Amino acid sequence: MQGKSRETFSSGLAVFFATLGSAVGLGNIWKFPYLTGENGGGAFLLVYFLCILLVGIPVMLCEFYAGRKTRKNAFGAYQQIKPGPVWKHIGTMGVGSAYFIMFFYSCVAGWVYYYLFKALKGDFIGVTLETAKAQFGATVVGPYSPIIWQVIVLIVVCAIVAAGVQKGIEKMTKTLMPVLFLLILICDLRAITLPGASEGLQFLFHVDFSKLTAPVILTALGLAFFKLSLGMGTMTTYASYFTHDNNLFRTAAKVATADTLVSLLAGIAIFPTVFSFGMEPGAGPGLLFMTIPLVFSQMPLGNLLLIAFFFLTSIAATTAMLSLVEVPVAYFVEEKGYTRRSAAILTGIIILAFGVLASLSADKSSLLGHITFGGKGFFDWFDYLSSNIMLPLGGLMIAVLIGYSVSKADIEKEFSNGGTLHQEGIITLFFFVIRYVTPALLIIVFLNSIGIIR
Ligand code: PFF
Question: Which residues span the membrane (predicted)?
């Protein structure tokens, strides 16, 4: 940053919670369960794990390297690693992807905040499958309430980001992540004791390879990127605030493991309920909003737990959004000379301008739901373009850049914290994977998705 000393997180624990706060979000609780449901359960899960291992963790490590080494925002970091007209655009594209994700993410986060409000009012007491479906339909179609809640979400997120790295992001994530974990466990206990729960668990864990088609594999790959906040400079930006003695390998492994665990726990809370109440596992984006009120409806203190659940989902969504907003904010502050506050306000306004389109097109009967391009409306396009195209493309560029432009000696120096950690074996493995395995897999899945190879 221009001459001024740059803020960092205050400790290793703060690094872990902030990074996990970025990874854990609506992706785990909303997207992971419904994509697993739509794509056949266990087989999808298996491909997803492989994507995390062979693509996700290596790209995360590349981003950690770029951020901590340069201590710059996504644009500045890649420009420093390889000056010239091309590679800095990993950062430009990252800022673009952050916006695209925020357009629809802020809309779904708005639904979650609204559900919390409704739970507080007692709207879900005595809910049945029919009324749960009707309430979700009314929430999504609006047209005013989804936009009002989207605005509220954006005000909360931008205010925290404006407060700074330690006072805003670190303080929020460190307090709230452990509570989130505990509450999902309580939901799980309830879900697996429902009658018929085993059918749901079987759906989640039964592996049927006939379900694996090229689009399913691309979806799993896109989900891995989305889940671990990769391919768009988020982890690069966060790593620029990491402490100098952080063990990057260990942080990546811990974050990927904890994040996957939260996704599985969310799946374990949702699928037994789906089967117990005779719902469709492939119900799409509404799955979470229709199942969770049902899980708690018929138990003592159910409404209290429902409030807690939506409170925690709001937290997960909020902490993930902090990291999304931080990408353009760090860019505007460090590259364009904005103050943190005005950068946060500007970012919020841009997100709202386009995010409204997502809110008004989330369902076929929404105000703009009839406007489609190639079968997808605004909401679906924002989601598809960012998760399935921009993030994997960004990830490919990051892996190629770090794998081929940075010397092994430089990698060794950064990952060993200047020689204080001894990790020669794992560094050699990492170097091999990002040079050959990760790019090859990304290219094959891409070519396949656009129909060039089958
Ligand atoms: N990882 C977040 C989730 O799973 O909800 C979403 C996300 C956050 C994606 C930050 C990308 C990102 F840069």
Answer: 12-30, 42-66, 98-116, 147-165, 177-197, 217-241, 261-279, 304-331, 343-362, 382-406, 427-453
